[in-house]
Records
---
Amino acid sequence: MADQVKYTQKLKDAKVLVIGGSSGIGYAVAEALIENGCHVTISASNPKKAESTVDRLTKSYPSAKSRIAGQSCNLGDEATLESNITSLLEKVGKVDHIVHTAGDALASMELANVDMEKIKQAGMVRFFSPLMLAKHAPKYLSGGPNSSITLTTGAVSERPIPNWSVIGSYATGLQGMTRQLALDLKPIRVNLVSPGAVNTELWLNSGFSDDQKEAFLKSHGEKMPTGKVPGPEDIAESYLYVLKDRNITGAMISTSGGSLLV
């Protein structure tokens, strides 16, 4: 007689779209979902990225090849943002969960240098695209509390950082967006994950050299109660949790290594 699998198979055969799944946290989430038996479609900013990501995942999980797919979707252009999102959803079709981890270069800037164009662009991928996604996603989600949308913010939403007024405002705004969407889209669940500093490619994409990145991660890690800045594979566990727990909605999971305590 076989053992019951009441908990370990909760995500088996679930169809999940990971927006921003070509690198960093999104890529780790895609890996974790594949290992949990999901059918995963990753979305990247362009077709080449999507194709190369599918190749990487397939090499790591050759037996799961039939469960891995990729699509491209540019979230950085205001004029095409909504149409690009609807096109992506149409191509992917029905899914059980959508995870939004997409991000662009960290938009820190002195307040004196801010203008409307910079403000809008800073929020295009991180704030406006989740809102447009929520507008159209219900049509493509399987529905009920078994389906969910999970968004991503950052620790700056909980602890301000100098010269981050613009991006910090969007990050904090995502908390309110999540709570509101949990009501507007019910019974579909909507949650938010808030990572602190994470060792991903984003640091290099934001203009840090290898030495600057390593110096920051070492210095920051020494201040954290955990003693180390995590990799994305640790943060991925928070996303798995909110997908599995069918009783959580409108919530933010903070995974910051205790850095907000010191």
---
Amino acid sequence: MKTSAFILTLPAILQAAQGHWIWARVAHNGVWLEPLRFIRNHTSPFFDEPIIPPGNANLPYRQASWPTYSNDLPNSVRCGRGTFDHAATTETLKVKAGDTLEVQQVRASPEDFDQEAFKTVWNCSIAPNACCAGYGACSFWSGMEQPMDFNHFGPRSVHLSKVPNGKDVTMYDGSGEWTKIDTVGVEVANGVMKWTLYVGTNNLPPRAPFKIPKQTPAGQYLLRIDLMWPGTREWGDGLAQLYPGCVQIEVESVVKGSLPKGGVKIPEILARGKPGTIMSEAMQSFQKVDVDYVYPGGPLWDGEKLIQDRPPLM
């Protein structure tokens, strides 16, 4: 029955393929690297269990670009559905503590990158004032180059999880502790709030590079990037949508040891009702920032200490 359900809905899956996104390409110190070379690829479609929050129409078979939920399989919440299956064939990016990384989202699943309807273009135009110059991917929908935007708002977070001694990053499932090193979230100006990376369909989102803190100890890590669409208190089931991906990195550093104590466990920190996973309808509709809202994924490490990670108030 599961297989027949998937076959019956395949056209709908293909039609919706560009509706969400995966993280597919890394830039190291401003240079875009080969797509999916250092990011664990997805198994797509992938059957996840348990899934389906009450009243949700998504199927257990979901393409890579469809949302992940906190009650999916733990490895799915950590790095994306079926990505651990690809860990051994994913290369490890060598970086130095203090280096800058950037990760590009793609609004399609890997099996759909070359479909003419929404073809993924990795070498965007470099012409002055071109739509996507400098970005790691663009699309060629309806015969013209267009940006890879985000069609959901929410906080984008970056976490590091150090690989246990004696293991290689290609064998690590992320079941250890995670430390958050970056958040891009809410801006407030002149009494108006907005989500920094959400600019509306077909508008170019701001670029959002981040640094590996200089105090990061040497070693291998999973780097997790995610943009969460939080649930709401007043309607729906309150279950957030997640869009996680993991980069395999090895950090060269003069610092030895481990990340600071106080890290978090994933998926536990992202479970239904945990801080940052739910907000009021007023915040959902950009009317105001909830006074008690903190960004999901635990405290933020600024390279020296863990700090509370919250948006500015209005």
---
Amino acid sequence: MVRKIKCDCSERTGTKITSLDCFNEIKSFFLTQTKNKIFTSKKVTHPYYVGVGQNEVIEWFADKWYVCNCCGTLWEVNYPDFPAPGFVRKFSDGKYYAKDENEL
């Protein structure tokens, strides 16, 4: 008998990480999904923020990307650096693109 792996990506949304409890819950979720082979960790290749300093281009990269092995959704996770919040963003089509800062 073959066990079919299922995901719940369609029911989940992006979110801001505003507390240590929220961060620990999200981190635990992604670790469990990876351990159960529902998600695969992927190298972060695009910055979520690009700005221009006085003499340089500034790029900020997320800490983790995960790809769902069931539906192909790409998840971007940026850990909080309190008091600055972190975030989780969802790309349902599996393709990364620039998102508005207020869009989760």
